[in-house]
């Protein structure tokens, strides 16, 4: 399984090498530029600036006209990046090492969770392959938060299945330092705990479920101390990424308009189309989990879809699918029962995986 993980990492590094030579920013360039340049796009700049300069350098903040809204990003990844940077002087290398290590933990944990649901031989390897060649797999290999979040969230879920509630909530708290989605995970863990009381009425672990909210509370307190705004991280998302509240049908209509009504350039329109497709996948997954009465997982997916589906338009939903571990387990189950489905999945997703990887590595990603 880790061998498969390493092979897919190598394939993405080869893609990055090719992208640097074939798609330079200047078509007339005779030098491809630094080797790590393909990994230094979009949100990576925010994480780098936070880790290097802090949230409010030189007394800057949201009161400035050209502020970059960096407080929208939770501090877990930048803090770890700063720590690793003390050992690895190159910031990008430090970020890649974090994601490489966290990704390995993620794959192992995902395989172990899968074995709880699928007794078939090879289920762990199958889910790992499906996950690692998913369309947005590039974000597991760059200096982003997906790998680190999953490295905490999936062991937390695994611990919950074994009723190790103190460990589960502690890991969920660490996940919350990375992304606000950790609160959605905490809600699912709490529901799992309540359901377990039907067979094991033990309330001694109940106080532990306040722990995942602590990182978010401390971060809000820190931002309030600097900006006077308890929800500064949310308001930064609204300013920078149009995450103001809209009804689900308004968000769908706005996304559809930008995807198909020729108001955007083709690259942006394609990404809006991907957002719509990812939302449909999420709704189908929610329906499946509800039908199977897997209520904790259904709650986790529902909270994710609500948060992502009530902005002005959809943004980052394809990336968010990486965090939906029930999706990859469901696909692995289907592929084990229907071999043709496995072949079809690989044939259909591999081109998308390559296209999305090239889109990010060449600086053209838009969502």
UniProtKB/TrEMBL annotation:
It is found in: Endoplasmic reticulum membrane. This is Integral membrane protein. The chain crosses the membrane at residues 91-114, 126-159, 171-194, 206-224, 268-286, 298-315, 345-366. Pathway: Glycolipid biosynthesis; glycosylphosphatidylinositol-anchor biosynthesis. It comes from Streptomyces lydicus. GO terms for cellular component: mannosyltransferase complex; membrane. Its main location: endoplasmic reticulum. One of its GO terms (biological process) is GPI anchor biosynthetic process. Keywords: Endoplasmic reticulum, Glycosyltransferase, GPI-anchor biosynthesis, Membrane, Transferase, Transmembrane, Transmembrane helix. Coiled coil: none annotated. PANTHER family: GPI MANNOSYLTRANSFERASE 2. InterPro entries: PIG-V/Gpi18 (IPR007315). Pfam families: Mannosyl_trans2. It is a multi-pass membrane protein. GO terms for molecular function: alpha-1,6-mannosyltransferase activity; GPI mannosyltransferase activity.
């Amino acid at each position: 399984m880790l061998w498969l993980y390493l092979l897919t990492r190598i394939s993405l590094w080869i893609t990055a090498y090719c992208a640097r030579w074939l798609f330079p920013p200047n078509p007339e360039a005779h030098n491809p530029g630094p080797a790590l340049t393909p990994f230094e796009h979009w949100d990576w700049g925010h994480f780098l600036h936070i880790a290097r300069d802090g949230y409010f350098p030189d007394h800057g903040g949201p009161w400035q006209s050209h502020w970059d809204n960096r407080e929208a990003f939770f501090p877990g990844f930048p803090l770890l990046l700063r720590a690793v940077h003390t050992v690895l002087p190159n910031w990008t290398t430090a970020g890649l090492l974090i994601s490489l290590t966290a990704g390995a933990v993620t794959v192992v944990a995902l395989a172990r969770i899968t074995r709880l649901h699928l007794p078939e031989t090879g289920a762990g390897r199958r889910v790992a392959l499906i996950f690692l060649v998913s369309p947005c797999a590039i974000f597991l290999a760059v200096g982003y938060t997906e790998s680190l979040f999953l490295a905490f969230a999936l062991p937390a879920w695994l611990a919950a299945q074994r009723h190790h509630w103190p460990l589960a909530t502690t890991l969920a708290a660490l996940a919350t330092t990375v992304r606000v989605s950790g609160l959605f995970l905490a809600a699912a863990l709490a529901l799992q705990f309540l359901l377990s009381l039907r067979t094991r009425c033990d309330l001694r672990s109940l106080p532990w479920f306040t722990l995942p909210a602590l990182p978010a509370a401390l971060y809000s307190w820190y931002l309030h101390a600097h900006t006077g705004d308890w929800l500064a991280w949310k308001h930064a998302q609204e300013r920078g990424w149009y995450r103001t509240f809209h009804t689900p049908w308004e968000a769908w209509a706005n996304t559809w308009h930008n995807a198909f009504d020729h108001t955007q350039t083709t690259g942006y329109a394609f990404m809006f189309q991907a957002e719509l497709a990812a939302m449909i996948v999420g709704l189908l997954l929610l329906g499946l989990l509800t039908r199977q009465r897997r209520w904790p997982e259904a709650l986790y997916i529902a909270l994710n879809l609500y948060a992502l589906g009530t902005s002005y338009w959809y943004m980052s939903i394809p990336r968010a699918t990486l965090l939906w571990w029930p999706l990859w387990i469901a696909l692995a189950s289907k592929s084990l029962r229907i071999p043709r489905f496995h072949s079809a999945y690989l044939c259909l997703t591999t081109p998308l995986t390559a296209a999305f990887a090239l889109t990010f590595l060449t600086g053209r990603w838009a969502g």
